[in-house]
Amino acid sequence: MKRHDTPGVVWWLVLLAAAGAFALTMGTRQTMGFFLSPLNTATGLGVGSISLAFAFGQLWWGLTQPFAGAVADRVGAGRVLLVGVLLVALGTFLTPFMTTTWGLIFAIGVLAAGGAGMAGPSVLMAATARLIPAERRGMATGVVNAGGSFGQFLMAPLAAALTASLGWMGALQALGFIVLLALPAAWVLRGPGPAAAPGAVPAIALPAREAIRCALHTPSYLLLSAGFFVCGFHVAFLATHLPGVVAACGLPAPVGAWALGVIGLFNIIGSLTMGWAVGRWRMKSLLSLVYASRAVAVLVFLLAPKTEAVLLVFAAVMGLTFLSTVPPTVGLVAKFFGTGNMAMLFGLVMLSHQAGGFLGAWLGGQVFEATGNYDWVWYLDIVLAVAAALVHLPIKEQAPVRLQPA
Fold first, then answer.
1. Which domains are present in the chain?
2. pLDDT per residue over 343-391, tens digit each?
3. At a CB cut-off of 8 Å and minimum separation 6, what does 129 contact?
């Protein structure tokens, strides 16, 4: 039986594999901030030094995605995902044994984050976009994105429970083994990269240099990347420092784990809703709305009393906008260029996202050590969110551009 002889079965098998892999890799990465304080206590390196390892991980996660995407465009997603999942498991397992900043950078930043980049959204979204009809692409990317959110919702409380029963070192090693459950997805999503599903936009895979040249000469693509930089800043700051924000507010530590879980739960709702909305409204308008909503939510949080209820409500609102930017961003990249070089070109957008992520994770630690709180990072987050809401307005949503050699 061919891959597309029974479309309904194949589509949902593809979605299950991609969403499940994203749930395990993303869920593990997003819970690492929960271990920042135990790592600091065990190593004595200081929040700033440990934040550097987390920040490097954000940047390396982005740097690996264009290259992983370029390989997946040529040889298929399965082999790339296989290596990526193994690296995430290895890096997570080795983290408790690292006692220096460079050791943490290697385990968290190079191995785990690099593997998560190889098994990340650029490869998963592109594989999904190729293997399903174009008319289902918006909802499909929403489902895959929701998988990452479900992983965060599931893994954050699981990390807290494992820490309570096994200690923080045992919890990290257990998470490393759990990530291996994503390995079957590599088999499901295997196959030649450029293959297109029936009904999908024809895939035209050009040499990487020519595709990148075309993308960098597309103003709307550059504006989209600039907006995604802000998304990375916001997401990485919350994922790394929300437990620290909880502690700074004088609230119990488990509230931080539950807040991360609430973000993941409501991000499922936000991702699915955005996947539905992508086919009905302009994607650039949806992105502007998301960033404007973040600015308002952060401002209200700063003005509100810092109680457990307020923090969890704030986490829920942030969850609705947390990764709901991904479906319209993927949709715009596919609309600009088709799917032939999509993994690589979306990977470049993710690189911009993770450059912002590096700044958010690193700056959070530096500001906290300098001032004892995170207020100035929140102020910067508001300014950046407003800027991102504005920068999407000039984007031109055009029909797919047929990439040709220069």
1. 13-193+208-391 (1.20.1250.20)
2. 778 878 888 888 888 888 888 888 888 888 888 989 999 999 999 999 9
3. 137, 140, 141, 200, 330, 334, 339, 342
